[in-house]
UniProtKB/TrEMBL annotation, chain A:
This is Penicillin-binding protein 2. It comes from Muriicola marianensis. Residues 247-577 form the Penicillin-binding protein transpeptidase domain. Keywords: Carboxypeptidase, Cell inner membrane, Cell membrane, Cell shape, Cell wall biogenesis/degradation, Hydrolase, Membrane, Peptidoglycan synthesis, Protease, Transmembrane, Transmembrane helix. It is a single-pass membrane protein. Residues 46-208 form the Penicillin-binding protein dimerisation domain. Transmembrane segments: none annotated. InterPro entries: Beta-lactam/transpept (IPR050515), Beta-lactam/transpept-like (IPR012338), PBP_dimer (IPR005311), PBP_dimer_sf (IPR036138), PCN-bd_Tpept (IPR001460), Penicillin-binding_protein_2 (IPR017790). The lineage of its organism: Bacteria, Pseudomonadati, Bacteroidota, Flavobacteriia, Flavobacteriales.
TrEMBL record, chain B:
It is a multi-pass membrane protein. This is Cell wall polymerase. Coiled coil: none annotated. InterPro entries: Cell_cycle_FtsW-rel_CS, FtsW/RodA. The keyword Transmembrane applies. The chain crosses the membrane at residues 12-33, 53-70, 82-101, 145-161, 168-199, 205-223, 235-253, 333-354, 366-393, 399-418. It is found in: Membrane. Signal peptide: none annotated. It comes from the Bacteria. The keyword Secreted does not apply. Keywords: Cell shape, Membrane, Transmembrane, Transmembrane helix.
Length: 622, 429
């Protein structure tokens, strides 16, 4: 016992030490995390954010300098707070509060004390800065917008928050990141990679020299400039036409899927979200829950597609062989479902497919829809076939475009109706509204534009996209260059396109023709409902229009959606017509038409549901 | 019996010498890394601490040769004299001592400051061995026990007022020699129980300590063998004494200790839970411990590499080349390095126990135990402090820490024993 006492003590001590050391160095270790090391300071060198140009190389977004006042709380020496506050242009309580926050964040890491000083403030402050130890000015680059449009599609940048930093440790407090739109989607390209210099510090935080002789230091990598597919002029013109209206416009180049314009109304000047007033402006925009300017209607609104959807049902009927272009249907100013009559505005009489389209006859397409379903022994099978055809046009699911927001839209399937009506307890007559684009179907404006592009191409589309070039190199992502073929054969498109062209020559949009340009289009007038105090209330119809031009070799396909604009040929039709002319001719010949669109607003219409009084809808005034 | 130099090298225990050289070598590499400045890079630059230490290592090796070649019986014969000389040197400090960093522990010899307490370690070990091995000494007698304790306590009492409580504490380790030689282990048990009660009282309070003790006794009574007669009265006496001790711990802690003592204990036992006060402790009395723990932690499994320790370079750990040298090992060589050093120390100490046990002469064995006790307590307290499991007590890590007196003192301690061991077969002469 006596002999082994000391030996056991020695071994026990050895084991205890090894245990403690393995806890410290293996389980709790912060090994070699140079950024966590209080003996090493990282100094960052930020590259300039890449510029954004439009499809023609016109500048959209550039940079401007701004100056942040930074503080390292641990290094702050007693100072004349009042003088300093007046220099910074903030009051003392605010100053103390920010100092406290900075200290809570970290006593030895820099925090932003006053962000984004103007050049004038900076000049005044710069000479006196030496007096205040622990404070310094960091130059930063802010966005500068060479346009006052495209706020939602361009997106904005703002300081990273805690959760951004947690999600991506690349970011440090005070750095900027793209929040929405192109800025978010192409953040890594535009941002570049910051450079870093590691400095060895001693325990008094004095610099001793470079850490590891600077072998870990990196140079900043410049942000790349990008060229987007937007046409600045078209975008700006579209936004001008949208003043006083709510809705979304998407214009595509059918031959490539490039997005020519992405307009959401109401919009705002992107410059509002830059600089010191940023957060005040942001709150104002964000909390406007009635007109929702930051809500991109072109990508997120999901109205029923209305009459433009009839073209799809016509195509499916042809493809399934249940109708021919010559097939006629008699319209009795409506049609019957069982013994219940549904109305039609086409004027009645015998319709073939051509006049069915250009007069937008409800009865004709109800018949087409019914026939598609009746071809198959069960409604389930008919539904599957119909759904497959419709979805091949990019409806009912995310399109896969390169912007960070979107909606699926809705193309109902048999499971959907089984849920609503019960298994096998429904038939085509239950869902006949889908024939005319009402009912359960829903699509975003960009989906409608894409559908139009697929018709313009006679049977295929390219995934819509916004990127054209990165750093001078054209982007040829197979995602965007592979055509997606619809399930409809090419030959069936000709009668449909003819019908859409006749919409302009003799149909619902005949007073919207553009001299010298052959257009194909389709109006849509979409019933819609809202809840006011819990009561389902019908509001004035949405005005919808899809079009492409020229009919042969189309250059532009678009969808215009105007909330509560009533007839499709009114607001949406006018705006579509003007945009096509602007894009193809570069100027507007029909100045009276343009003047009317620039002046007319729908504010009175939008105020109705909030008036608290009884109101009329679909008034004929124009 | 006067052995030639050649024979000494044949008989000396080379394994111990190898372990010694490893520790000294690794120690110097870390001192070099810790004290390297931009100015000097010549290894033998005596204006630099690492250069000085290299000189001390050379001096220690020469001293080691001398200790090995002196006649073995010299140590036994002159142990009383050496003891008295060092005690006089310690006494002389009160008059001629040089004050460095608040402690009057040195004689200034121009080039080099001599620290007599380092020398007293091996002379006290020698004197104790000499007294205990005397044919007339009987460790069972109360009078002889007290005299042996006196030999240990004299240097303690001389060193405490310097003040250098850390070094003084080291001498108490020599009681292990007494235990090996028949001093009743009962005392050790009492000391151990007292320590446990002390710590647990501070951590959990008297009530929990009393309840746990009562439960332990109850369990003991329940599982005892039927044939075994339990001495009930002493058991209860023990219990009441423990409870009274526990109560007095609280009283002493609250009323006798000063705030700085309380802070040290609360730091050691992690008693403080309030984050703001913890932050405060880290910046004041806990600074060294916190920084050395952080430095070791940042080394991870394999360390940052030789001369790459950022905290070492940035002088984050105070006294890093002396008492906190182990944190350099931790930062630059990681767990690989620290584990290696712990294993080297364990091997050396176990080897010394083996050597001590094979001695035929009582004097050699007792001195051997003295050597082990002193090395062990240094190693235990120093490393324990640096890795944050023991309170801050400033004593060097043997063979490792910067310092000439300490290195030569430890070398003397070790090599005198190696000489005795090499000579063990001649004892019959």
């Amino acid at each position: 016992m006596k002999k082994f006492l000391l030996s056991s003590i020695i071994v026990i001590i050895g084991i205890t030490f090894i245990g403690r050391l393995s806890y410290l160095q293996i389980f709790r270790t912060t090994a070699n995390q140079v950024l966590e090391d209080s003996a090493v300071q990282a100094i960052y060198d930020y590259p300039e954010r890449g510029f954004i140009y439009d499809r023609n190389g016109t500048l959209l977004v550039a940079n401007q300098p701004a100056y942040d006042v930074m503080v390292i709380p641990r290094e702050v020496k007693p100072l004349d707070t009042l003088e300093f506050c007046s220099l910074l242009g903030i009051d003392k309580p605010k100053f103390l509060e920010r100092m406290r926050k900075a200290r809570v964040y970290s006593p030895r890491l820099p925090s932003v004390l006053v962000p984004q000083l103007s050049k004038a403030d900076y000049a005044r402050l710069q000479e006196k800065m030496r007096k205040y130890e622990g404070f310094y000015i960091q130059k930063r680059s802010l966005r500068y917008y060479d346009t006052n449009s495209g706020a939602n599609v361009l997106g904005y940048i703002s300081e990273v928050n805690e959760s951004d930093i947690r999600r991506n440790p690349y970011y440090k407090q005070g750095e900027l990141t793209g929040r929405t739109g192109i800025e978010k989607q192409y953040e890594e390209v535009l941002r570049g990679v910051k450079g870093v210099k590691f400095i060895q510090k001693d325990r008094f935080n004095r610099t001793i020299g470079p850490y590891k002789e600077g072998t870990l230091d990196t140079l900043p990598e410049q942000g790349k400039e990008i060229r987007v597919t937007l046409d600045k002029e078209l975008q700006e013109y579209g936004e001008k036409l949208m003043v006083g209206k709510r809705g979304g416009i998407v214009a595509l180049e059918p031959s490539s899927g490039e997005i020519l314009a992405l307009i959401s109304g109401p919009t705002y000047d992107p410059a509002l979200l830059v600089g010191r007033e940023r957060s005040a402006n942001y709150s104002k925009l964000h909390y406007d829950t009635i007109s929702k300017p930051t809500w991109d209607r072109a990508l997120l609104a999901q109205p029923s597609p209305g009459s433009p959807f009839k073209t799809l049902n016509a195509l499916i009927a042809l493809q399934e062989g249940v109708m021919k272009p010559e097939t006629t249907v008699r319209c009795y100013n409506g049609f019957y479902v069982g013994n219940k009559k549904r109305g039609c505005h086409c004027g009645g009489g015998l319709r073939n497919m051509n006049s069915g389209i250009y007069k937008s006859c409800n009865a004709y397409f109800a018949q087409a829809f019914r026939k598609i379903y009746e071809k198959y022994p069960t409604t389930d099978e008919g539904m599957d076939v119909w759904e497959k055809h419709v979805k091949s046009f990019g409806l009912g699911d995310y399109l896969g475009y390169d912007l960070p927001t979107g909606r699926k839209g809705r193309i109902p399937d048999k499971a959907y109706y089984d849920r609503v009506y019960g298994d096998n307890r429904w038939a085509s007559s239950f869902i006949i509204s889908n024939a005319i684009g009402q009912g359960e179907v829903a699509a975003t404006p960009i989906q409608l534009a894409n559908m139009t592009a697929a018709i313009a191409n006679r049977g295929y589309y390219f995934t819509p996209h916004i990127i054209k070039e990165i750093g001078g190199e054209p982007v040829s992502d197979p995602k965007f260059t592979t055509p997606h073929y619809t399930t409809i054969d090419k030959k069936h498109f000709d009668p449909i396109v003819q019908g859409m062209a006749d919409v302009y020559t003799q149909g619902t949009a005949k007073w919207l023709q553009i001299p010298g340009i052959e257009i194909a289009g389709k109006t849509g007038t979409v019933e819609n409902f809202t809840k006011i105090d819990g009561v389902r209330t019908q509001l004035t119809d949405h005005s919808l229009f899809v079009a492409f031009a020229p009919v042969d070799n189309p250059k532009i396909a678009l969808a215009v959606y105007i909330e509560h604009g009533y007839y499709g040929a009114r607001y949406a039709g006018h705006i579509a017509s003007l945009l096509i002319e602007k894009y193809l001719k570069g100027e507007i010949t029909r100045t009276d038409l343009e003047k009317r669109m620039l002046e007319k607003t729908l504010e009175a219409e939008y105020a109705k549901p909030y008036s608290g009084e009884e109101f009329k809808i679909n008034e004929y005034v124009w | 019996m006067n052995m030639s130099g050649k024979s000494v090298f044949k008989r000396v225990d080379w394994l111990t010498i190898f372990l010694y050289l490893m520790l000294v070598g690794i120690g110097w590499v870390n001192i070099y890394s810790t004290t390297l400045t931009d100015e000097g890079n010549a290894l033998l630059d005596f204006s630099q601490l690492y250069g000085k230490q290299l000189f001390f290592i050379g001096a220690s090796l020469i001293a080691a040769l001398i200790f090995l070649n002196l006649e073995a019986h010299f140590y036994e014969r002159f142990s009383s004299l050496l003891y008295i000389i060092t005690m006089v040197l310690l006494l002389g400090l009160f008059v001629f001592g040089k004050n460095i960093a608040g402690a009057t522990s040195w004689y200034s010899l121009g080039f080099f400051n001599l620290q007599p307490s380092e020398l007293a370690k091996f002379t006290t070990a020698l004197a104790l061995a000499k007294y205990l091995s005397d044919i007339q000494t009987d460790i069972k007698k109360r009078k002889d026990q007290l005299f042996a304790l006196l030999i240990i306590l004299i240097p303690v009492l001389l060193i405490i007022p310097q003040p250098d409580p850390g070094s003084a504490l080291v001498f108490l380790a020599l009681v292990f020699v007494l235990f090996r030689e028949g001093f009743p282990l009962f005392y050790l048990l009492i000391a151990l129980v007292a320590l446990i009660v002390f710590i647990t009282t501070l951590m959990f309070g008297t009530i929990w300590v009393s309840i746990s003790l009562a439960l332990l006794i109850a369990v003991f009574l329940l599982v005892k063998k039927a044939s075994f007669k339990v001495p009930l009265f002493p058991l209860f006496t023990f219990f009441f004494l423990a409870v009274i001790f526990s109560l007095s711990v609280n009283f002493v802690f609250e009323n006798v200790f000063e705030q700085r003592h309380r802070d040290r204990f609360s730091l050691w036992l992690r008693l403080e839970k309030d984050p703001e006060k913890l932050e405060e402790i880290r910046k004041t009395i806990g600074y060294n411990t916190y920084q050395s723990e952080k430095a070791i932690e940042s080394g991870g499994g394999f360390g940052k590499g030789f001369l790459e320790g950022t905290r070492t370079k940035g002088d984050f750990v105070p006294e890093q080349h002396t008492d906190y040298i182990f944190s350099t090992v931790g930062e630059e060589w990681g767990f690989m390095g620290t584990a290696t050093v712990v294993i080297l120390f364990t091997a050396l100490l176990l080897r010394l126990v083996a050597l001590a046990e094979r001695q035929k002469s009582d004097f050699s064995r007792m001195y051997g135990y003295g050597v082990i006790s002193i090395l062990l307590i240094h190693y235990f307290i120093n490393v324990g402090m640096v890795i944050g499991i023991l309170p801050t007590i400033g004593i060097p890590l043997p063979f490792f820490s910067y310092g000439g007196s300490a290195l030569i003192g430890f070398t003397a301690l070790l090599f005198i024993f190696l000489k005795l061991d090499a000579n063990r077969l001649n004892e019959w002469l």
